Amino acid sequence: MAGYKVVVTGMGVVTPIGIGKNEFWDNLKNGQSGVQVIPRFKEFSTYIAAEVADFQPQQYMEKRDTKRTDRFTQFAYTAAQMAIGDAHLDFGREDKEKIGVVIGTGIGGLGTIEKQFKILLERGPRRVSPFLVPMLIANMASGHISIEHGLQGPNLTPVTACASGTHAIGEAFRILQRGEAEVMIAGGAEAPLTSIAFAGFCAARAMSTRNKQPAKASRPFDLKRDGFVMGEGAGVLVLERLEHALARCAPIYAEIVGYGMSGDGHHVTAPDPEGQGAYLCMRKALENAGLSPSAVDYINAHGTSTEYNDKVETLAIKRLFGEHAHRLPISSTKSMIGHLLGAAGGVEAIATILSMYHGIIPPTINYEYQDPACDLNYVPNKAIQGEIDIAISNSFGFGGTNACLVIKKVYP
Fold first, then answer.
1. What is the DSSP letter of 37?
2. Is 95 left (phi over 0), alpha (psi -120 to 50) or beta?
3. pTM listed for this prediction
4. Which of 144, 149, 167, 302 is catalytic?
5. CA distance linking residue 230 with residue 195, whole number of Å
6. Each residue of 309-344: pLDDT tens digit?
């Protein structure tokens, strides 16, 4: 799609291995796991998760707002503030009608729903918070960010399960390409570490039960993986039209050059066994970028540490990239931070850009036993040096919804 060039000028993250891009990157490249035992879940078959244990929302937002927002909104707002600061964006000098926000989430305020429903049952309807609805609705993360800064450009919230964050960045990219805004704040946020979410995923037998070895539980592409590890957090980027970024001498980390979407049309939770949806998504993203598969230097995989996803994603990569697939370094950030659901795409896009920016490809940790069906280079256990000019970041979600970004290195 022809249009304005779009660049990344700021990044902010809240993750289980670091708050802020510098701490996150240091731990990511060093293969640090953020998975730990969560004592409040000891009664469940899985009681480990990747929690942002040291997050104090009052350090990043007004105290009154911490009482009126769900944890997922607090994550999003914090990451957005960091991204705005990183981009040196001064709203006092900008046309706020031309600045928008797109923050995706898979669930929204699940913690608020759980807490307030308990109050309803135990104490009656009169004790339910008047802030219940504005705290739980999925679009409140993007809403809060835009309200806080008076931003009047496009404002929306993709709710596409584990692809939400990537869809958010992709849609912001297209808004800027079309010239409908000059700056977009985009990414994903999720706070799913609740009893109801754990009960549901445990009932579905989707999560790892390696409770005695939490740091080794998330093992994408490894033969002995036994399920994913749930995580929480947010990843938010500032995207700008290139001309706008250059005019204000903004830092430029990378260029977004392609975005693809597809549907599996197959099953509620299981991916298409032939990898058709994942294949189409990556192919469309590269076509959108005007690039051939051979141009790609690195893939940040969806890589959930579940048998179906890992095999199907590998199959789709081999189908699209052919022999080049065996030369491509591929890694899964989820091996360290767990699966952040709707926030995954935002955080993983930032991980991809940081890999490109520093010339270091982060590892897939806990890769010990080769699965014959997963026979590519997953950068096992230790980061490697690698020049990356073109990278893709994959996100696939329940309902068969898929999203892929193509990111290009920007040289000074």
1. E
2. beta
3. 0.97
4. 302
5. 12
6. 999 999 999 999 999 999 999 999 999 999 999 999
Cα separations in angstroms, 215 against 33, 36, 50, 223, 277: 6, 7, 9, 17, 31
* Nearest one of 76, 409, 52 to 234, comparing CA atoms: 76
Beta strand 360-361 with 401-409 is unpaired
Separation CA 281–CA 260 (nearest Å): 5
Identify the bridge partners of residue 397 per DSSP, sorted by sequence position: 401
CA distance 338 to 49: 7
Residue 326 a catalytic site member: no
Which is the catalytic residue, given 144, 162, 167, 281? 162
Does the annotation mark 267 as catalytic? no
The tokens 């294949």 sit on which residue?
Answer: 279
Strand 99-104, strand 183-190: pairing: parallel
H or E element at residue 351: helix 344-358
Catalytic residue list contains 302: yes
Catalytic pick among 167, 339, 374, 404:
339
